[in-house]
Amino acid sequence: MGVVNVTPDSFSDGGVHLDPEAAAGAARRMLAEGAALVDIGGESTRPGAAAVSGDEELRRVEPVLERLAGLPLSIDTSKAVVARHALALGVELVNDVTALRGDAELAGVVADAGAYLCLMHMQGEPRTMQREPRYDDVVSEVAAFLEERLAFAVSAGIAEELVCLDPGIGFGKSVEHNLELLRRLEVLVGLGRPVLVGVSRKRMLGRVLGEPDALTGTAAASVGAAVTAFERGASIFRVHDVREHVEALTLAAAVSA
Ligand code: HH2
Questions:
Q1: Given ligand 1 and candidates 4, 5, 78, which is best to mutate, with the most ligand atoms within 8 Å of its CB?
Q2: Cα 256 to averaged position of ligand 1 atoms, centre (Å)
Q3: Which residue among 46, 201, 202, 203 is the active-site one?
Q4: Fewer C-beta neighbours within 10 Å, C or N terminus of the chain?
Q5: Residues 249, 230: contact at Cβ < 8 Å?
């Protein structure tokens, strides 16, 4: 899954893809490099990010989705109004970082469209989530949360076969919490749904490399993290550097096979 953020403030590509033509070009390039789909987002969820209105989010993403009609896309949104428009334009998957807790109408929109859905774990909300996140056992707490949100999605009429689960790397988690989730990813894989991991360029990578003030991580560190996640059963990788990940994961898959 390639990432294109149509935002001024995303942590890694903020401002780069604000022009719809540039955003569509980046998405096409990612598909040509081997991405199975591209995740289009109109609201940053980086730590400290401010929320945007549905109107503004739609204004950012709609011209991009129109230019990419017919291509495999997901929409990174928590808002029913944005998801509804995106699905009408042919988007196949709704990637909701609130796991259907942000907008009471979103579950119905996904169910009615028969769309794929990604449910992600987050402790707190983006503005404040990195202020001292706490868990007794991060892996079992994230697993219990995802299991509960999956049951909720199914009760709202979304087919279980259409749902993937995501530990939410960096969403209300310390570096050690993130590492523990990657280390014991099999517990989440054991929930029986495909596991998506989004660690690409995140600041924890820079911190592991010894830069306490890092705001992003490198492509090489991202690839390393993705390969370890693959080896523990992850099957969808949300990444900014598509070619590098496709090459590394093709190699890792060949070894596993
Ligand atoms: N991470 C980000 C955004 N959406 N969705 C899922 N399912 N999993 C993730 O880990 C995830 C996500 C944050 O990264 P990015 O989109 O690059 O930045 P920003 O939120 O600043 O736009």
A1: 5
A2: 28
A3: 202
A4: C
A5: yes
Contacts of 221 (CB under 8 A, 6+ apart): 205, 206, 208, 209
Query: In the sheet where 116-120 sits, what is the strand order?
Result: 2-5, 38-41, 73-76, 93-96, 116-120, 163-166
Instruction: State residue 13's pLDDT score.
Output: 80
- pTM comes to 0.96
Query: Is residue 39 within 8 Å of 95, Cβ to Cβ?
Result: yes
Ligand 1 centroid to residue 19 C-alpha, Å: 19
Handedness of CA 250, 139, 175, 14 (dihedral sign): positive
Q: How far is the CA of 45 from the centre of ligand 1 (A)?
A: 6
Q: Which amino acid is at 141?
A: E
- Say how far apart CA 85 and CA 100 lie, in whole Å: 17
* Close Cβ partners of 120 (under 8 Å, ≥ 6 residues apart): 95, 96, 97, 98, 99, 165, 166, 167, 168, 171, 196, 198
Give the nearest ligand 1 atom to 46 CA. 21
Is 84 annotated as catalytic?
no
- Nearest protein Cα to ligand 1, atom 8: 198
User: What is the amino acid identity at position 257?
Assistant: A
Active site residue 238: yes
Question: Over 90: is that where the pLDDT of 49 sits?
Answer: no
Q: What is the DSSP string of 112-145?
A: HHT-EEEEE--SS-TTTTTSS---SSHHHHHHHH
Within 8 A by CB and 6+ apart from 212, the residues are none
